[in-house]
Amino acid sequence: MGQSIDTQVADAISQLEDVWEAPVAVVASNWQQERAVDLTRQAGRHFYDAVSSVDAQDEGLVLFLMGRGGEVSFADTLHRTLRASEHSVQAVVSQPVDGVYTLVALSADSIDFVGTGALGAYDTGPVETQLGRLDLETAAALREAGWAPDSTNPHHPRMAVHAHARQLAREMLERVLSGESDEFRARIGRHLGVERLGQQMTLDADELAALGLEASRLDGERREAALDLHGALERWLELRGPTEPRYEETGPGGEVEFEPARDIPGAFVGTLDHHATYLMDTGQPHPDTEVLDGEWEVGSGSEN
Questions:
Q1: Which CATH number is 247's domain given?
Q2: Which DSSP helix (H) or strand (E) runs through 72?
Q3: What is the pLDDT of residues 47-92, one digit of tens each?
Q4: Element (DSSP H or E) covering residue 273
């Protein structure tokens, strides 16, 4: 049957659907160190499959967003999916997000915030580039060209990779806001760009509303239900606290003993009934970036 949702996450999604009286789709990923996941077009395809299974009679769709970075191809796929659907989309943001998560939030009809929710720069690039890392294919190509992947040389080709990612994000923003005036697009691009916000600053609901976006803060039952889902996802994706090491020293000679490799969830995309989980293998770190490798598994329902 494939990978199912953690029971607490499933219960929280169900609760949010009940109080909102609308189906809920979730896009969530880990962004910390070796567990960082940059969502790509493949994840976007899983999102398309999930949203396509939502009853067309449901006019509204709640899109819960939690993560950072990501590839522009993911935002492109989600934007096309949301535009093609007949649902009005309300994004819910429960923590600071950036990159494609900001682009996806801007694709929604309105954005609701809860907790520390806020939008960071849309053009920060993938988490890998934010951390100064490169994917295996790019790193190998740089070595062939005689460049060390981790060089700090300001003329390093890696800088061109980063610049290209930001240019793609700017092109994507134009597509997301294509129905708006030139002045509005320029205003959003200026205030939500990395040149102004960097990788650490964000804009909250009031600041975004002042820019002309449909943004507000949740209260009442919807607020509590959204916070419950945030907490359940935070626990399941192991975002709380430092990552526990896989080994411990067992003797004075510095010998170490590794715990058995295991699959851990790094990202989740979809609805309660149709979803995909990105499972990372703790025994398969990427040789260049040390990020754990993984693969998507499609599932339905929740764990028993």
A1: 3.90.226.10
A2: helix 72-84
A3: 999 998 887 566 789 999 999 999 999 999 999 999 988 789 999 9
A4: none
